[in-house]
Each structure stands twice: as C-alpha cells, then as structure tokens.
C-alpha cells in the first residue's frame, strides 16, 4: 500500500487534496469525519481488493459475494470518535440479528450487512502496549504536508500490522469446521463475550446449517435471551435453516 509518500511534491499535492477536510487549526492535523472516510478508503480499498477480493459496499466497509451461505467482511472498529482499527469476520444470510428494540431481522444486503462474528488484531487487544500499531486516527502531527504524510503512514502501519492476522483468520475459517473451531475459542473468551456475545447464537445456527440438528437444539435451550418472545423469534428462524453440508 503506497500511500506513504517520500516525494516532497506528492506530499504537498496530497495535503492540498485533503485541506478542505481539515479543521482550522494552525498547529495540528485534524480531519473531519468526511475527510477521514475519504482517507480510509484511499488507504484500504485497493489493498483489500488485491489481497482478499473484497469491494467497498458502503462507507468504511468491504465485503465479497455470498458463498455457502456466508461472505467475508472487513470494516472499521471505532476505538472512539478519533481512532479506529480494522475488524474482520463473516456475515451469514441464514442468521438473523436483533436491533436495540429486540426486533429480529435478516442482514442479507449491502445496506443491512452485519458482521456476525469477527476478530480484532492481537496488537489491538494487548492493552500493555504503549502504542498500538494496529490503530490509526484522524488527528495529530503538524498541520503541513509532512505531518499529513505521517498520518497516512499511520494507516499503512496499521494495515501492515493487521494483514497477517486477517490472512491467517480467513485461512483457518475457510471451512465450516474451521469456523466452528474458531467460534468455540471466541465463546470462551471474556473479551469477545464482552464485545460480541452474539458468537453463541452464531455457533448454534452454524451447527444447524452443518447438519448437527440435535446438538443445535440442545445448545439453543441453554442460551439466555432478553425475554421469551426474543427466544421464540430466534427459534423460528433456527427452524428455517436447511442443512447444507
């Protein structure tokens, strides 16, 4: 990903391109949200397509086509309003989700896409590090061409840090057997239970999809839901899953 520019004139040109998106600050770089989205896509669109065949389907989100009931998704995981990292995982066309109102709905289109299960870089999860290389942001550095170049370099460093883990994750979960193994690990993780407790329901739906109906039913009964209505809604959707493998 060649967005870190060594040529001084190219640095100036890039800085001028993004200048309309900079807040009026004489000392530090501070991109507004629109400018940061533009930089994110300039940084990652081509490299994600070249390495994984995924295309941008909406702002800050890339995916490929469905195959065997699922498709790969890479998207932005916001640390806060100023910094982010990349999350990478899978979307399923046979697994619903709930919104904040407990409504059960499918997420089968580009507009409604949802990453049912995902991973984050170990570099990001390791809180003992003073500086996470997997994190990139929209502020900092001096408000001049060289400072903006450093901001772009931050995005490149993040990709170089996360890429091997993304590659390894999709290699290990390329089969449904590998995916189930990964989901078992995530279900045991306190960290992932905190940020994505949905891994438990995903595991059950994948069990059903891969033909393990009896165990899927048993595991479903052991799950806790918001209320009986939510449980019943999910159960109805589970019964709609046809064994494919």
Write the layout of secondary structure elements.
Layout: H1 8-18, E1 28-30, H2 33-52, E2 55-58, E3 61-63, E4 70-78, E5 83-92, E6 97-98, E7 104-105, E8 117-120, H3 122-125, E9 136-137, E10 139-142, H4 145-172, H5 176-187, H6 190-195, H7 199-209, H8 213-222, H9 228-239
Antiparallel strand pairs: 1-10, 2-3, 3-4, 4-5, 5-8, 5-9, 6-7
Helix pairs in contact: 1-4, 2-4, 5-7, 7-8
Notes on the structure:
The structure is a single chain. The chain is α+β, with helices and mostly antiparallel strands and 245 residues long. The protein is 47% helix and 18% strand. It contains nine helices and ten strands. The protein has helices at 8-18, 33-52, 122-125, 145-172, 176-187, 190-195, 199-209, 213-222, 228-239; strands spanning 28-30, 55-58, 61-63, 70-78, 83-92, 97-98, 104-105, 117-120, 136-137, 139-142. The strands form three sheets. Strands 2, 3, 4, 5, 8 and 9 form a six-stranded antiparallel sheet that branches. A two-stranded antiparallel sheet has the order 1-10. A hairpin with a 5-residue loop joins strand 6 and strand 7. The longest helix has 28 residues, at 145-172. The chain starts with 7 loop residues before the first helix and ends in a 6-residue tail after the last helix.
